[in-house]
Amino acid sequence: MSTISQLLKPHIMDLGGFKARRSLPHEHRQMVGPFIFFDHLGPAIFPPGKGVDVRPHPHINLATVTYLFEGVLLHRDSLGSVQEILPGAVNWMTAGRGIVHSERSPSDRDREATLHAIQIWVVLPQEHEETEPWFRHYPAEDLPVWSENGVTITLIAGQACDRSSPVETFSPMFYLDVLLQPETRFVLPDNYSERAVYSVTEGLSINGEPLEQHRLAVLESGGSIEIASSTQARCIVIGGESVGKRYKWWNFVSSSPERIEQAKRDWQEGLFGKVPDETEFIPLPGEILEPGKVQSDEVQPLS
Description:
The two termini are 26 Å apart. This protein has 303 residues and is mostly beta strands. Helix content is 4%, strand content 48%. The protein has one helix at residues 257-268, and strands spanning 4-8, 11-14, 19-24, 35-46, 53-59, 62-70, 73-77, 82-85, 90-94, 99-104, 113-123, 134-138, 145-148, 151-160, 163-164, 173-180, 185-188, 194-199, 204-206, 209-211, 216-219, 225-229, 233-240, 246-249, 252-254, 300-302.
């Protein structure tokens, strides 16, 4: 009997100069534990003079988490945070009641550059949705990293394998970066009710079932899972406990559709904070709705 309940093929998005593979939300699965958004960025190679330029944009009621395999990104936000992130480090930004941020390649672009990263959104429990926004950076050397039988594991966030990450979280979850040497295996315990494995590379299998590259395998609940490799391979493993139904529109996620409508109006009317020293921004897509009105084809329930 298969231990994979769903096998999700990502939607490929062109972000202007590089591609993102978006596995969550998916038409067949919206969330895994508290994870509501999962993007695999790149790998992309930028010629001299080019790079990433994600203009300032808003978020509410969620946390964004950036983790790099290769490259450099510069984070700026409306709290005044300015932080360069390098491979193996974590940028965690809690939007709470509202935050604005930009992400760009460093200004020194006189050489060829590479970007390869995972970006996720984590839903905040309802009692924390309107918390004060905050940003924290965790250097690579602060994260738990260990090796066992030819497998190197980094605990990016949460708790797993009798270890805890220093990254502050709001609900039961885990987020692992797993590097496997050829013909090695890693056993994932069943501490959480919802779990998924994303194949960054080829050469992986789950309990003997081959896992095609760039697929998110949502696992059945209960029981240990063996992740094995036939070649040098890499995967991201996520999971946790459900935080309940959510609504999503553009960059906004909330347990309340009315709260999303308010965020739309606030962004259109310039009521969010500003990123210092940046004048560009991403405009609100489409037309604003009348106060109190929610269109089901725009604000999507996620569960």
